Amino acid sequence: MQFFIEVMVGGLLAGVMYSLVALGFVLIYKASGVFNFAQGALVLFAALTFVSIEKMGVPFWIALAITLGIMVLMGVAIERIVLRRLVNQPPISLFMATIGLSFFIEGLAQTVWGTEVHGLELGITDEPFDVMGVFISKFDLFAATLSGVLVAGLALFFQKTKLGRALRAVADDHQAALSVGIPLKHIWAIVWAVAGFVALVAGMLWGSRLGVQFALTLVVLKALPVLILGGFTSVPGAIVGGLIVGAGEKLAEVYLGPFIGGGIENWFPYMLALVFLLVRPEGLFGERHIERV
Amino acid sequence: MNPHRKIGDVILKAENISLSFGGVKALTNISLDVREHEICAIIGPNGAGKSSMLNVINGVYHPQEGRVSYKGHVRDSMHAHEAARHGIARTFQNIALFKGMSVLDNIMTGRNLKMHTNFLQQALYWGATQREEIRHRRKVEEIIDFLQIENIRKTPVGRLPYGLQKRVELGRALAAEPTLLLLDEPMAGMNVEEKQDMCRFILDVNDEFGTTIVLIEHDMGVVMDISDRVIVLDYGKKIGDGSPEEVRANPDVIAAYLGTSH
Amino acid sequence: MASPQALQVNAHAPSRPALDTFPKLLLNHAAVRGNRPAMREKDLGIWQTWSWAEVAAEVRAIACGLAARGFARGDRLAIIGDNRPRLYWSMAAAQCLGGVPVPLYQDAVAEEMVFVLQDAGARFAVVEDQEQVDKLLEIRDRLPTLTHIIYDDPRGMRHYQHDGLHSFAEVLGDGRVHHDEHPHFFQSEVDGVGADDIAIMLYTSGTTGNPKGVAHTYHSMIVTARNSIEAEGLSDQEEVLAYLPMAWVGDNLFSYAQSMVAGFCVSCPESSETVMTDMREIGPTYYFAPPRVYENLLTQVTIRMEDASPLKRWMFNYFMEHARKTGTRIVDGQPVSMIDRLGYWLGNLLVYGPVKNVLGFSRIKLAFTAGEAIGPELFDFYRALNINIKQLYGSTEAYVMVCVQPNGQVKPDTVGTPAPGVEVKIADSGEVLFRGPGVFHSYWNRPDATAETKTDDGWVLTGDAGFFDDDGHLKIIDRAKDVGKFTQGGMFAPKYLENKLKFFPYIKEAVTFGDGRDHATAFINIDLSAVGNWAEKRNLPYTGYTDLAGQAPVYELIRECVEKINADLARDPRLGHSQIKRFLILHKELDADDGELTRTRKVRRKFISERYGVLVEALYSSQESCMIDAQVKFEDGRVGNIRATLKLCDVQTYPLATA
Amino acid sequence: MIYREAGQFKINYQSDSAILPIVQDRMFMIGLMVVSFLVIPVLGSDYFLAGILTPFLILSLAALGLNILTGYAGQLSLGSAAFMAVGAFATYNFMIRIPGIPLLLALVLGGLMAALVGILFGLPSLRIKGFYLAVATLAAQFFIEWALTKFGWFTNYSSSGVISAPEMQVFGIVIDSAAKKYLFTLAIVALLTLAAKNMVRSSLGRSWMAVRDMDVAAEVIGIPILKTKLLAFAISSFYCGIAGALWAFVLLGTVDPQAFDLHRSFQVLFMIIVGGVGSILGSYLGAAFIVLLPIVLNLIGQLFHGAISTQFLSNMEMMLFGGLIIFFLIVEPLGLARLWQIAKEKLRMWPFPH
Predict the structure, then answer these.
(1) What is the ipTM for the molecules in this complex?
(2) Smallest Cβ distance to D16: which of C40, C45, C355?
(3) What chain B residue is nearest to D204 in terms of C-alpha separation?
(4) Model's pTM, two decimal places?
(5) Which of C511, C633, D81, D117 is the most exposed place for a label (fewest CB within 10 A)?
(6) What residue numbers bound the domain in which A162 lies?
(7) Dmax of chain A from CA atoms?
(8) What's the pLDDT score for residue D254?
(9) Which residue intervals define the domain ABC transporter in the entry (chain B) (predicted)?
């Protein structure tokens, strides 16, 4: 039982980090209806940029600020150069464009910063500590807390601030948003910038855990089932989805893995999400869509 | 021999239909009959539930209460493709053509139900498939001729003006040789001349093929001219049902819809 | 499509009697080239095709069906509709029974049809569709003889319940039954008709008075058709598009008689709107069109090229220029240098071939034009593309062919030399007369008119004035009755001058004066779009027609045009004295609503000269300008006055070339 | 310009709906076939045949498969490589487990296995659409990759997980040389292309496009949505499966799950985006582009005599691919095939602009 809880808590904590990546998707999807496959590439780019700048001897906070600046610029550039030109295309085209984008950014990141693996030290030792007999990784807890704060902050931002409400209006109906005088282009740029920020946080957390390297882009693949479970448009959905995926995959690996050969964490979340989709196609918190004809 | 104006028995019967979307009532306890060979118009202000009614009839929406019987088949829930198989075809308020295909191919899809070769035969495109394609192509060409759209036969529908798209959509519905044709605002957004053409096509279809037609239309002149019967909906409820003259004289209808102009 | 049982023509019968009627020719084709295509129609998306054998079977069924309803020798069968195979076959079916087909102009309103139907005394009518049926029903009470109306297209006819109204299907069905019951009837009917029987009646348009029915015998039609087929080297491989009105003699010759004689295939377009695309698909080898069709095509080419990229435009212009220099020479078989040939070959690859392809002219071996004068620019454009376009001069009374331009001797301003077997002479009055195998039999019911037009020794008066040039080519200048005289002698042919003026794209209409005067003068209407374009390119601002017409640079432009004509006229000793000395540009466009043009857009010279008498007098005075105050009818029906002061412009004239 | 269509009229529906209704196009196709089948195998170098043309043809086939599903039926898939893998491994297993089985039969059976798996993963398409479905196909990608690596049975318990292709023989001819391999691939690809063209121009293809363009209307017409989608998944996977088997046997000679990873799926997707979504020709143009681009880049790299690292080149390649995808989606969403079509229209209208 204790082992079960340990596995579960570990999974949940990892899940919060999935949520963090998924959050980047939700932000952009909510505001512009774009399923941004390039979020993973942004994570890689952010982490690589930060590490490389820090390696030049720039102090941590300044490196962080510079990276943040670069990410904001990048978000705005993406919106300007790519998405604005695809405004009236079907969502699938936009999705494919972001796949192209992710290739481009990955190539760019490695061209600029090289391909070697960098370590990233955030100064948190990854030692387990005991909570009522359950061992919990300190790092995981830290990461989860940070993610949790960020997620909660963004949720509040969406619910409470004027800009957040504007963003939601944009997501609901572009035309309507335009007609009440919401400057669509600015909002998109802001959203991309925020997404860049989220990518930076995710990149640093994931980077310090896995090392900053190409494999970071693969966290995007972890975030997808989270999104399916949680629904593309829901911030709380991203959190709950992340928790389910995190806990589910760890438990499955531990309890199911031995029977079917192990290494199932790559596909298990997907299968979980798929089965879930068949029951509830709009996701856990997604809005049901009535097709009008 | 001549089905014109010879109105037959009830073929479509909707009884006590109620439909709501997430608590919003679209239709409340509506019953209506449609007789064979007649042209029946459903009118009513925006949001009266006209389109929803058509969607219930051909199985796109499933009502929470009530049932629909068509040619004696009673059902409370039928899928749209089953309705198609029973000879119900329709057009849509916002044109629902297949944008990436030519006029010809769009209308050909209307005959899909009548095409029976399997995909292996189609991969060979020899013998049965080719004969089938030719047979149906000929039938489709007759529809193209009927609707006088010969010159746009191979044009992608996306490039056509609105009025012609409506005509193509009618063609696609006709290709199925339906016994019941549902037309959702066939003349919306058309100029006078296009409306006249469309009226003629609707009357010709009814006349030449004996097709029963249920249509939703806003243009009162058109409705009064071509319908045998008019059903009036208002806020999801039926408030009138009868010949154009009767409906015109119905005080409820005048109050709710026709206003003071009559 | 056609009946499944194709006609079994007695293939092993002893040698057939002379092929002296169209039905006999048809049966012969069914026997010797039964499987070759005889007729096509674009219908249901493809070119439905009938072989000669199938056509013969259809014609037989129609004939027997007509006979079953009482159609007898000598009966007239009215035919009304667009070019449709079944209408052509009905024509042949009537001829099988010794009847006389009478095609009518399908776009005439019911009222206009009354006279012809009454005059011809048609008992039967075969019509295309509901539209034509409605017209006939509308006037039926005035047509006591018309007892049967047969329609081709059943669309919309479902509820028509009228006596004597039959669908084509009924007639065909009855005909097949009739043939089964009387298997020898058809052949004996066909055999009973001979070369000197009346084959067809074609009504002339009748600019003055009522139309007259021109009756032709089989002999005159078949000989004329055969002569031109031989002269032009046509074969049974030709492809022809039948798109001109069936009531017009030209269509009858090209789409019916010549096809029946030569055995080539005739294709009917899907509708009158699709002629262009249908033409492109069929790619005819033999083509006939009045000048306005060629002109429309050229306009289209020009307009479409204006949207092309500069490089393409340059290429087009460069090679068209080259073609104008060498293409016409190549068509006429004149010597051309190797370099020029190479240039032409390249031009053909890049421009001429593709242009012809887009127009549907790729396979044309022979193209005719007739009916009106054709502008030299226009004529040269097509010849430069290596299209052998030729003018001919003809009339209904001649079964078209009077004069044809011989290959290699094509001049834009003449109509060529007399057609094979035809003699042409010029009367002292200047009127053109002809005699030959194609001369008509008589005007229906009008012995008086026949006698007026046809002399006892077979000469026919054309009513046109003309003369032979030095090469023996006929030059038609005007209607004989319109030709006037200058005071000091010499012929004044107003239409000739006006046509020459109108060949300039800048001039839309022209009216010339000179009868009873000592020189010619002209009113000009500029072409607003052409001159407007020209003005825009020169940054010449203008507010509308009247403003533009009064501007000095425009006068200068038109003056140059007129001078060119004068220079041209000066070269011809017979016409040199009709050089235009003065002209003015009218302040308003001549308009049919104001009675200045006929509905077919011909200028009503007399009316204009009366209405604008002040201006005419001014042209013959020494005034520099003249005030005019004229009433106009606006498009919304209001009447108003336009007052303007018009400039009068002198033009240089040239000394006559020595004769 | 080269088109001379006047006089090419159709007197029946067969010729009107022919694959190549214009004579000049037919001539071109015949010429292309003659060159491909007779001239190239004789004149082409081994590198050209085995290093460029054969992979090009196989990838074209995979792109064609994906185009059927994504381009025609409108179902976005990110798992084409997984179906290629199924085809490759299934064919391998049929060959080693049924002694004496003819190569072609094994190939077809392998394709059918891929089709079966395709249907399985296509089932969710009834309920989910768009990128939800795309994500579901990712499940196929990861699951199949995992299963093939994890279970030794698939690889016949080869220790390295990599298996070698047995000798290939068709009608008694051993396919060993580059030319033979090329011809074998070409024949299969040509036949399957013809079949695909036939399917998309008959009622099945129209149903696919109807479902793609407006699924509600398609259903109202009576098109069975699930059956239509599943057929698209099945046929698409069959094509991918055959392509996978050819990739493994004819091209590589070994079968390795890593050859069919997510990257390959993306590569195939890029081909149809660049080449043209919903176009058979586009599958070829896209494949040619994606196959040739790295080769050209390499040549450019060689020009600099090693001054450019291969790492740099491969990063450049990634950027270039990504950039091109975006470029095409923005500038010409229907890809090279559309450009080709426009060029053809221009030639037909030459010298007129429209």
Answers:
(1) 0.86
(2) C45
(3) B119
(4) 0.88
(5) C633
(6) 2-226
(7) 61
(8) 84
(9) 12-260
